[in-house]
Write a structure and sequence with these properties.
By secondary structure, this protein is mainly α. It is built from 13 helices and two strands. InterPro entries: ABC_transporter_permease (IPR051393), MetI-like (IPR000515), MetI-like_sf (IPR035906).
């Protein structure tokens, strides 16, 4: 084959490769444009706003450096919102993870009506946040709500006042959050359980292992990657919580359930202080990043110990 023919073949391959790349990029371009407009550019702009003073009007932005960060860290409401977010995460992450795993293990067996039970536990996740909040607020109604009526029936004369109590409002929000999201993560665990070879359980049965031993020494270790994924997603979700709190309590009573995102929302769209609001968003980003990195390091150590 002559050199001209070789060049022609090489040029044809290059053209086909370029055409293939163009087709591939054309498929991801709409999503990339949407991501850039609605996520990437606003995130970059929030970094800029965090060192600016601006109320969203036609008044030019004023560079203030780290003054916005000093302002929010000196604000007791910001410190309270940060603490409430941490408490909310501690109250919801592990219970949701554990309940989702247990439900998945229970619903992984072949029992009659299994599809109905799986659907019933998953349904709260796809239900509207507004509807869920409204119904649970009715159930938690302190004077004649069904939950408190039941508590009185079993002998608790002074049941909690739930969403109107500064001591119990966050507990009520956490209960609803666990109920709503454990079904979704149950599906994630169910998918992971399908990937565990049945031969492992058969070998364990031959060795005389009972159900608890199979769960402890086979199921839980084999679910380690999934557990890590669920832990990361739940942690990020809890630190980003807004809608559930906004619908059920609005951050109250007082500021008892105000989380970081609620604080950022109030600063930006109630008080029109975009600088402190953006500074709060940067702090939220840093907190989630640090927690995620710690979890990554813990997962590496955990995986190493399990091997």
């Amino acid at each position: 084959m002559s050199s001209n023919e070789n060049q022609a073949v090489a040029k044809g391959k290059k053209n086909r490769r370029i055409r293939s790349n163009v087709i591939g990029y054309s498929f991801i371009l709409p999503n990339l444009i949407g991501y850039s407009i609605f996520v990437f550019i606003p995130v970059c702009f929030s970094f800029v706003l965090s060192v600016m003073k601006w109320d969203g009007s036609q008044i030019p932005m004023e560079f203030v450096g780290l003054q916005n960060f000093a302002q929010i860290f000196g604000d007791r409401f910001f410190r309270g919102a940060l603490w409430h977010t941490v408490v909310y995460a501690l109250m919801t992450v592990l219970p949701t993870l554990v309940l989702a795993m247990l439900l998945a293990v229970l619903l992984n067996s072949k029992i009659k009506g299994i599809a109905f039970y799986r659907t019933a536990f998953f349904f709260p996740y796809i239900a509207s946040i507004v509807a869920v909040g409204a119904v649970w607020n009715m159930l938690f109604q302190p004077d004649f709500g069904p939950i408190n009526e039941f508590l009185k029936l079993i002998g608790i004369s002074n049941p909690p006042r739930w969403v109107v109590s500064t001591d119990w409002a966050m507990v009520a929000v956490a209960i609803v959050t666990i109920w709503k999201y454990m079904g979704y993560y149950m599906i994630v665990y169910l998918a992971a359980l399908q990937g565990i070879s049945s031969s492992l359980y058969e070998a364990a049965s031959i060795d005389g292992a009972n159900g608890w031993q199979k769960l402890r020494y086979i199921t839980i270790p084999m679910l380690t990657p999934t557990t890590f994924f669920v832990l990361i997603m739940l942690t990020i979700q809890c630190f980003k919580v807004f809608d559930m709190v906004y619908v059920m309590t609005g951050g109250g009573p007082g500021n008892a359930t105000q989380t970081l995102v609620n604080y950022i929302y109030d600063k930006a769209f109630v008080n029109w202080q975009f600088g402190p609001a953006s500074a709060g968003a940067i702090v939220l980003f840093a907190v989630v990043l640090v927690i995620t990195l710690i979890q990554f390091q813990g997962e590496k150590k955990w995986s190493k110990d399990m091997m």
